[in-house]
Each structure stands twice: as C-alpha cells, then as structure tokens.
Amino acid sequence: MKKLKSDSPIPLYYQLREIIRDKIMNEDWGYGTEIPSELKLCDEFNLCRATVKQAMDGLVNEGLIVRKKGKGSFVVYQKITENFLLEPAFSKKSGEAGLNDYSTVIFSDFTETDRRMQKVLELEENGEVYQIERLHYIDGKPVLLDTHYINPKWAGNISKEDIREIAVYKYIENTYEKSFTNYKIGVQAIMLDQYEKEQLDFPEIPTGMVVECLSFIGKEPVVFNRRTYRGDRCDLCLEFIAVNQKMEVVNSEISIEERNGKRH
Fold this sequence. Notes:
Protein name: HTH gntR-type domain-containing protein
InterPro entries: Bact_HTH_transcr_reg, Chorismate_lyase_/UTRA_dom_sf, Tscrpt_reg_HTH_GntR, UTRA, WH-like_DNA-bd_sf, WH_DNA-bd_sf
Oligomer: single chain
Pfam family, one: GntR
GO molecular function, one term: DNA-binding transcription factor activity
Strand content: 35-45%
Keywords: DNA-binding, Transcription, Transcription regulation
Mean pLDDT: 84
C-alpha cells in the first residue's frame, strides 16, 4: 500500500482512509474482502489506535465497509457499470458480481398523451402513446425507475411480449428491420418526488439522477425514455475524445453501487 506523508497538511487519518478507499474503489479489495485489523494497520503505518479507528469509522459511514463483531471489517461496496446510451441490461454484469437482479412491471398499455409527449414524439393532440414503466432491482433493492414512451406507429405487438425482460429498442429494430440513427440525451440531478420515493424505497437521501433520451429512426422520433436512478447508488461518468477539434462522447456510464450503510 501507499505510504503516509507525515509532513503533509492532510491529517493522517484522512490519508489512511483514502489509501484504503482507493483499494476498494479500484477493486483491489473486492466485495467480502476482509480489511486488515486496526492493530495491523497501526503496526504497518506506525499510527495510534485512535487515528486508525477514525479512518475506519469514515469508511463505515460511507458504506464501503462493515464491522462484524468478533470477525473483523469487510468490504461491502459493489459496483455495476452500465452505458446509459443503451438500455439497462444488468443481468450479465450483476451475475458476474454475484448479485441477483430482476425487474417488475408497474404499467404497460396505451395511454393518453400529455403535452410533452405530443411535442417530443410529434403526436396529435388527444392521441395515444404506448407506455412501459418498470422498476429494476439489484439484490432485492430498487435502483432504477425506467419509463418508455413509444410512438404508437412503432409499438407493433409489443403488448404481447414479456414486458419484464423486453429490450424496447431491439424489439423495434427487429420488428421493423430499421436501426435507430440518432439520439438526444439530457442528464440532470433531481430531488425525488413522492411517487419516485415510493417506488425507489424511500432513500434516506432523496436525490436522483435522471437520464432522458429521445431516439430517432431517420428524422422521426420513435421512443422517449426516462430513467430515474437512486442518487445514493449511482455515479455518472462521461468520457470525451477530441475529433477534428470537437469534443465527442465516446463513453457515458452510470455506475450502480451496492453499499450497506449510509452515504455521506
């Protein structure tokens, strides 16, 4: 592990916490790994017990480790990264991480359009849109409220499919033998409203990350997708590359984090 800098203005407990935190976040110490005991850390870094305890307390409060009486301290942080330009597909990655995931269907049917859907999907007033609303869980905990609004012209017989598992974009491309060509995407941090709190199991910190994506086939808007992630279990990562003196997104990710404990 890295060494502490005794001549640094940064407190020693904070330096130690960051060293251990880096090991966890970089997955050098994966889920379930036992952290060296406080006594071992005292010996390794030549620190007093109070300083080490302060560092460990910070990691517990952040939800990265948990103390088990009579056994020690263990990593409880897990992360699944998804490209939010694509549809959520947790199954493979959550399985690799030893997690169980599933989805439940809240609503799936034609519904009357509101003004916003009329505008973004270029639908007639008093028309209909096909709405699919699902809740995605990882290890029994809701992490994502996922809603699709589909232009009825492109809905096909989607109501006859297994709505829990269907990949909306792939279904449309396969049914109509056409590919999506471009997307308009917006990302914002929000305070969850009452409905979102109820669906996402009343997170203690009622914040969320919303990703909205309007998808086109040619010039025609086909699907509007709104995803609301629990703010205490996700991080946003954007990667850019310079192309002809312009910045283009090459990777856009939401990291879903499983933590036991509180995040501060």
